[in-house]
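seq/struct pair 1
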Amino acid sequence: VQLQASGGGSVQAGGSLRLSCEVSGSTLSKYGMGWFRQAPGKEREFVAVINWSDGSTYYANSIKGRFTISRDNSKGSVYLQMGSLKPEDTAVYYCASTIFPVYTGDTTYWTTRRYDYWGQGTLVTVSS
C-alpha cells in the first residue's frame, strides 16, 4: 500500500485547509484510514480515522467539530477538511492505513502502532 499526502500549507488562524491522501496498491475495502499529526518536539498524535467500507468515523477530542474526514471510493482518496484552524494545529500531518477496520470500543485506533502503512507528511502552519 502506498499513501501520498498533499494539501498542506500556511494559513491564518480561523482559516481552512483540505488535506488529501491518495491511496494505491491494495484492495481497501476492509481498511481503516487515519490522519495523525506531529508538532515540533511532540509525539505523533491521532487526529481522525474512517473505515473505508462503511464510512464510519472517529475523531480526537481536540479537533472534533472543526475537522471532517471523508473518503472517495472512486478516486481511492481520503480527505481531511480542516476548519477554524488554530496555531496549535500547526504540525506535519500524516495519513496512515490499518488493515483491520476500527470500531466502537476499539482501544487502539488512536495509537500509531495500530497502523500498518504510512505516507510522507504534509506540513500545515497556522499563524495567529
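seq/struct pair 2
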Amino acid sequence: QVQLVESGGGLVQAGRSLRLSCTASGLHFDDYAMGWFRQAPGKEREAVSCISWSLGATYYADSVKGRFIISRDDAKNTLYLQMNSLKPEDTAMYYCAAVLLPPVAAGPPLKFYEYKYWGQGTQVTVSS
C-alpha cells in the first residue's frame, strides 16, 4: 500500500521560510516522479514544483521560481520543498504526489491528473 505523508506546514510571516517534507512508503521511490501541488480555497489545484529522478529534470511554477527549491533523497524515500521569501499568495494546502516514470521520460509530469498517489496535504499559511 502506497502512502505519502507530508509535514512541515504551518503559519509564518511573509518573507520567512518553511521546508516541507514528504515521506513515501510502499513504492520503489527511485522509479517515481514526484511533485508538489497546492490548492487554495476556490481555486484549482496547481503544480508548484515537480522532479523526475534524482538529479533529473525539475519544474517550477513561474510564481515560485527563484524562491522555492525541490529536492529528493532517494535513500530516505523523502521529497522536500524549501520555500523561501514566502508571500501571502503562497497560502494553500500543499500536497505531495507520485507517479511511476517511464524510463524514457524527458521530465516530470506537470498536471495533477497525471499523478497516481497523493498525500493528505499540509497547510501553509503566510501572514502579511
